[in-house]
Amino acid sequence: MIEKFHRLGVEESAVELPRQFTCPFCYEPHPLALMAVERVQRYVATRDDWADELASGKMLGVLVVRNDEGIIGFLAAFSGNLAGSVKHDYFVPPVYDLLDPQGEFKHGEAQITAINHEVERLEHAPQRAALRRREAIARQEMAQAIADYKALMASHKRGRDERRQAGPLTAQQAEALLNQSRYEKAQLKRIRQHHQAMIQSIVDEIAAADQEIDQLKVRRKAMSEALQERIFRLFVVSNARGERRDLVEVFKPLGTLPPAGAGECCAPRLLNYAFGHGLRPVCMAEFWWGESPVGEVRHHGHFYPACRSKCKPILEYMLQGLDVEDNPLEKPMRAATLDVVYDDQWLTVLNKPSGMLTVPGKALDDSLLSRYQLAHPEASGPIVVHRLDQETSGLVVFAKDKAVHKALQQQFEAHTIQKQYVALLEGLVLLDEGVIDLPIRPDVDDRPRQRVDYGQGKPAVTRYRVLERRDGHTLIALQPLTGRTHQLRVHCSHPQGLNCPIVGDRLYGRASSRLMLHARSVTFDHPVTSRSLCITCPVPFL
Q1: Helical H runs in 414-510?
Q2: Distance of CA 238 to CAs 77, 246, 312, 319, 346, Å?
Q3: Is 226 exposed, middle or buried (0-12, 13-18, 19+ CB in 10 A)?
Q4: Whole-number Å distance between alpha carbons of 195 and 213
Q5: Does the N-terminal peptide bond of residue 448 adopt cis geometry, omega within 30 degrees of 0?
Q6: What percent of the chain is modeled with pLDDT above 90?
Q7: What sign has the CA pseudo-torsion 95, 97, 292, 288?
Q8: Could you read off the pLDDT of 194-221 as tens digits, one per residue?
Q9: Which pLDDT belongs to residue 2?
Q10: Cα–Cα distance measured from residue 353 to residue 174, given in angstroms and rounded to the nearest whole number
Q11: In a 3-state reduction of DSSP, which class is residue 344?
Q12: What are phi and psi of 476, to 5 degrees?
């Protein structure tokens, strides 16, 4: 029996297998995957030697598989490394062992480290520091010499002015005073040039000393890029067709090298091991164990989709040959009549269903906008005034011409348009009301996820009010005072926010039938009639 294959203890005839393999980018774990996850969680809970590291946060994954004998079992994996190693008996090995002391990565890393040490030595060399001090002193001396001479010139000018005011001057005396002024201006220029020449001499010495450092940095960058490509050539993955390809080739259609960390996540490790050992994948799941990373939103024990920047190209290749579930986020919704809440000759307010895009996306053309345009061919210019996430339902405002769109946009920019959302949260919010102020920026390695970042994030502020608490859940009203992507979802789920994910939030909480977030009302001044409008629609999950 394969050493990494763990029996689940169920026979194929006694369990209903999923008809298709899990879509790794949007899924609810199959019961078999949940069984495997429970086994892995029990195992890691026994490893006291890993307790501290796991408590700080780690992504773990399971792949339920079937062998040639029809026995159902599972494989387990962790992302990155654990306890200073990428190889542990219970888990599948990495696609490529970056930590192998005799491997290509460690050899190349040692060469780059040696350059780093040489750069650091040269940057902190006593001779270079002495040159920097000489430059600073020379600049101070230049500033002082110029200041002293300007003071002397000012004194002489006052004397000349007094001579001119004392009485008439002969032509010879007037010329003498003028010549003195001309000489001193020329002398100031000569003093400045003299000191500048001295400073430039020192700057040239520094540049000569820095040339070696610059050359080393150029060499280091070239070596790093070459090493990265060599390493990703060693990350060779298989797909269900039996084909093999390195990660450079996998990412080649995108016109880029793989990002750092590509191939080190759970899913590629699990699938690569399965394909290499004749195991047929059945379903999979990845879950977070431990505390949430700084800035990110990860909850202990929650399941998460595979990341898009690092894993999506890899998994799309590796899953070729498997019958995989469609991504529900990339499937057009059934044709339905637009739910018009308000309409006049200038604008329309629609109630967007959960699961529909507001505007066309990269993988899906169907959207509320495209359907609105079919229904209103007379609408021209910018039409959508604001957007809702695909999984959020509720009110969206559409303009029928450019002038109305501009006027509504100005109200959004002036924060005079008020929107209220209603959400059902996992857990109990203790305070009845309050304000969440957490800056947000995109997670560039895992779009469309967002993360909290006090350094580079944009301001994001949300006012909240508890409507009801029941059965371990909180019904809450949310008023965004800014309009950041995923603002409400992050503010509800983040540990520094409410620490209560919205029910059904597959990115920041737990997936379910839908995201329980609804844009219930929007209040604004009509851009043509100036009449105040407060438009509401029922919350579908109440």
Answers
A1: 487-493
A2: 17, 9, 15, 9, 56
A3: exposed
A4: 27
A5: yes
A6: 76
A7: positive
A8: 999 999 999 999 998 899 999 999 999 9
A9: 65
A10: 91
A11: coil
A12: -140, 145
Strands 517-525 and 393-399: parallel
Euclidean distance between CA atoms 386 and 207, whole angstroms: 53
pTM of the prediction?
A: 0.77
What's the maximum distance between 2 C-alpha atoms anywhere in the chain?
124
CB 75 within 8 A of CB 13: no
- Going from the C-alpha of 438 to that of each of 141, 308, 474, 491, the distances in angstroms are 49, 24, 21, 7
Q: How confident is the model at residue 12 (pLDDT cuts 50, 70, 90)?
A: low
Residue 153 and residue 181: Cα distance in Å, rounded? 8
> Quick one: the chain helix, strand, coil %, rounded to 5?
40, 20, 40
Residues 6+ apart with CB under 8 A from 462: 435, 436, 478, 479, 480, 481, 482, 487, 488, 491
Q: What are phi and psi of 232, to 5 degrees?
A: -70, -20
**Buried (b) or exposed (e) across 185-199, using 16+ Cβ within 10 A?**
eeebeebeeebeebb
How far CA 177 is from CA of 103, 161, 164, 458, in Å, comes to 82, 9, 9, 63
Lowest mean pLDDT among 177-191, 267-281, 305-319, 323-337: 323-337
DSSP state of 91: S
401 is catalytic: no
Token representation of residue 425? 């949260």
pLDDT digits (tens, 9 = 90+) for 87-123: 999 999 999 998 888 888 888 889 999 999 999 999 8
Catalytic residue among 389, 443, 446, 505: 389
CA–CA separation, 146 vs 187, rounded Å?
Answer: 10
Residue 541 and residue 519 in contact, taking contact as beta carbons nearer than 8 Å: no
77's tokens: 């994996």
